Hints:
Blueprint: H1 2-6, E1 10-13, H2 21-33, H3 40-48, E2 54-57, H4 61-76, H5 80-86
Amino acid sequence: MMAAAMNVPVSVMDTAGEGGAWGIALLAAYMIHKTGNEPLEAYLSSEVFIREKSTTIMPDPKDVAGFTTFMERYKKGLSSKEQLWMG
């Protein structure tokens, strides 16, 4: 559904179920072990997820169309103030 909502390929790793405290621990490790101005993405790719398997899911055009319809209907149900916020 994320691929459909964003209309972009989405990669999901086997570790996708991890989060919360594990994510914070990774950020702490990055802050301690990064080299120079190494970006977080580079650190994660080279140190943390280098051996992790991932699956890339392409957006299905039918799902994209369905999500677009959903969002149009959702926006119509919002107040005018909320519609301005949603764009």
